[in-house]
Every structure is written in C-alpha cells, then in structure tokens.
Design goal:
Elements (H helix, E strand, L loop, with lengths): L12 E3 L3 H4 L4 E6 L10 H16 L3 E6 L4 H13 L2 E6 L7 H9 L17 H6 L4 E2 L7 H15 L2 H4 L6 E6 L3 H10 L4 E6 L7 H9 L4 E5 L10 H14 L8 H13 L8 E6 L11
Length: 295
C-alpha cells in the first residue's frame, strides 16, 4: 500500500548567519525540513509517519484527515497518497474556496466538506468512519501522540550532523508551534538534554499549551507568543522581516509559521534572553506551498 514511506530523507543542517544574531553573539543553525521533498514537505512527513505505518499494517483502504483551505498537512497527505499508492480523503473547514492548495487537492481527488466544527467532539469520526470504513483517521495537522512519536526523529537528524557543522553541542531548539505536536515529539526525544522553545503561531485559545502538556508534561520546553494578533494574521512588519531574512540568507520562509517563529526569536535575542555564545537550532518546518496564498 504505502511502499517506501519509511525512507525518511535527511534534512540538511546549515548555519544561518543573520546580522541581528551576530550583534548579540548568538549562533544559529537551521534544520531544513523544507528541503526533504518538494511536496511531502517539512515536519508533515514526520507527523504522518506513524499513522501510515499503522494504516499499512492494518491494510486500511486509505487515510482521512481535515484542515483548512491552505492546509500544509492535507497537501502533504494528498501528495503522499498519490506517490505511495494509497487513497486519501480531506475534510475542509468552512465553505468551498478556490485556493492553490484546494486546486491541488481537487486535482488529486482529495476533497470534502462538512462537520469541521465538531472536530473536538469525542464522536466526531463516527459518521466519517461509516462513509470510509476501515480508513485510518488522522487529527487536524497530524496532531496527537502518533504525530509526536514521528517527530522525535527530527532530533536525530540534527544530532547526526553536528560534527559536520563544527559544533560539539548546542543549547536548545527554536521552532514554530501550531498544534504543539512537533514540539512535543522533540521534547520527548531530547529527554531534558536541550530545551525546546516553541513560538506560538496561533492564539492561546487554540489549546497548544494544554496539548503539549498532555503529551510531555511540564518540563523541557518553553512557549513564546508569536501569533501577531491571531491565527493566520499577517502584517506589514512581519512581511518586511521575512523579505529581509530571505534576502540575507537566500532561504525562503512562509508567513504563518516559520517567519513568525524567526521574528519571535529576534525579539528574544534582542531582549537579552540568550547569552553570547549560545548555539540554537532553528527548525524550518516547511509549508512553503502555503506562500501561494499570500502572493
């Protein structure tokens, strides 16, 4: 059914020199999950891995999940299904919309609407399981314990490349948090050795702190506000910062997660939160297909 989905590509670990880091003596490397695949991009491959292993082991006819009209998660799931030969169904939030992401999903044949508002109810999946009997059900964004288990492998990818970077060790991670699942998996993998900093790209009422605590408890991580006024909110200051970073490094970002996370890191660095000589790893979590919605 799924073929070689288990063959995770290696994301390169690269230095990320930025003027505002140099001014404070902070070193930053970036783990480029955006480069592992043009379609199954970023942390989405890791968050889907355990779900797909289960689907394969159980002989599930397909995989069903849900998300919004710009969903990186649904886009990656659809692409994985097309490449590795399994059926997918995607339930979209709200009313039908015409976005580049939706057009891709339509072309693959993965689309549906209905019931999204009830996604947190215990019986949410029952009517969909009746329509898609035996399918593997995946929470929005790949969130939850199975997604966290797959994301633990991200830490291994970086640690395997430290010597090539010239680092003996590092002091912590910095990444965007949308569901908290990727952060939780990395906290589990680190087991207290290095702190994981999550830049909250969504408001507090989205439940990320509670979700992370349910997965890993209270230690090993810190959460920082980074949503800039709300989910999917983009402003001129953020876009200008993103353009400056892209011009300086040649690395593309997207405005909902990676750019917000990096801007929040600059705020903390300039406030003196990290001493000179600190070495951090920034996780580029992909999602570049979503840039098309902000052209």
């Amino acid at each position: 059914m799924i073929g070689r989905f288990d063959d995770l590509p290696l994301a390169p670990l690269q230095p990320l020199p930025l003027n505002w880091l140099r001014a404070h003596g902070v070193e930053l490397a970036v783990l480029r999950l955006d480069l592992i695949d043009p379609l199954i991009s970023g942390n989405k491959w890791f968050k889907l891995l355990e779900h797909l292993r289960i689907a394969q082991a159980q002989g599930a006819p397909g995989v069903i999940s849900l998300g919004g009209a710009h969903s990186n998660h649904l886009h990656a799931l659809a692409a994985a299904g097309e490449r590795f030969g399994f059926a997918t169904a995607g339930l979209l939030r709200g009313h039908p919309q015409d976005t580049p992401t939706v057009r891709d999903l339509q072309a693959i044949g993965m689309l549906g609407y209905g019931g999204y508002r009830e996604r947190h109810q215990p019986d949410f999946w029952q009517p969909w399981q009746a329509l898609y009997p035996g399918w593997q059900c995946v929470a929005e964004g790949g969130g939850g314990p199975l997604g966290a288990k797959g994301c633990a492998l991200i830490v291994e990818q970086a640690q395997a490349q430290l010597a090539a970077l010239g680092w003996a060790d590092y002091h912590g991670w910095w990444l965007a948090a949308g569901t908290g699942t990727t952060l939780a998996g990395m906290v589990l993998a680190e087991a207290g050795r290095h702190e994981v900093h999550g830049a909250l790209a969504v408001p507090l009422d989205h439940g990320v702190p509670e979700a992370v605590q349910a997965l890993v408890g209270k230690g090993g991580y810190r959460l920082h506000e980074a949503c800039r006024g709300g989910f999917a909110k983009v402003d001129e200051g953020l876009l200008a910062f993103m353009a400056d970073c892209e011009s300086e490094t040649g690395m593309l970002l997207e405005p909902l997660y990676t750019a917000k996370a990096l801007l929040a890191l600059r705020r903390e660095v300039e406030a003196g939160a990290f001493a000179a000589g600190t070495r951090l790893i920034f996780l580029h979590s992909g999602g570049l297909q979503g840039r098309r919605g902000f052209a």
